[in-house]
Amino acid sequence: MTWPPSNHILTHHQAYKQSASFVPLLTSKVLQYLSPQPHEHILDIGCGDAVLSLKILSACEHLTGLDASPNLLEAAKSKAAAQQVNRSTTFILADCRRVSREHCPTQTSEVCQTLVPGRYDKVFSNAAMHWILRDESTRIPFFSDVFGLLKPGGKFVFETGGWGNVREIRAAMTAVIAFGGYGLSIEDVRRADPWYFASEGWMREVLEQAGFEVEICEIEERPTKCTEGEGGGLAGWIWLMCAHFFQIVEPTRRMEVKEKVVMALMGGSMREDGSVWLGYVRLRVVARKPE
Fold first, then answer.
1. What is the pLDDT of residue 133?
2. Are 56 and 79 in contact (CB under 8 A)?
3. Range of the domain at 81
4. Is 216 domain-assigned?
5. Which CATH number characterizes residue 113's domain?
6. Alpha-carbon distances of 131 from 138, 196, 230, rounded to whole Å
7. In angstroms, how far is CA 128 from the centroid of its own chain?
8. How many domains does the chain have?
9. Does residue 31 fall inside a structural domain?
10. What's the whole-number mean pLDDT along residues 273-283?
């Protein structure tokens, strides 16, 4: 995604730590499904700052992380260096919407050398595919690309936002921007929506069309507590994650939109103890490439 807005004083990594640091922490089940083994070569699509990647690496032979954010990748490399990781690991800047050699003209040479058909025992992704699948034109081909990268018998294991994820935030953003006198329509706001939250049925169908055997495809309603402290909370999450929405609004009015959205959401998002929760819905999948 395009981030940060030009008037934002934090790096993407700093903002993510303040507003969404809980994302890689709520992953025990998807890591259990991944079950990395000592001999395996694993590809992590949308690895971010590598909080999860380095956990996985401790149990496998080699891990390659791809991400579209230079800032997050620098943080990933710094983490790996600080932890003195001895195992083989590579973090590469890449357009994660298409991950096959067929599309190497749009990628760097380093990515092209990495995208070897049949190289990986497992492909993993956490909290990234709802961004990656936003582009309808690359949505279906993405799964064929992943299928091609796996060894026969290899598995694609991922968790992403599922159908209905943060529905209250999407509704509030639409209502405030489309009906708040900003000269924008509902259609404008929908085009700016940065996510695609798939249903179980859609996901199972496209995976099977790509050739996968779907072993697990499950939806979980998982209300999630916002981070607290300066730069975090509901306002911090919205400012970070809803950047695409803000970019269609005049720069001088973006803070106004944020404040209105926060005010609209607080009644339904705040609990008795004052904590603020988001309506997360997670979709977890294990899909296998046949032998």
1. 97
2. no
3. 12-166+195-225+278-288
4. yes
5. 3.40.50.150
6. 12, 7, 26
7. 2
8. 1
9. yes
10. 93
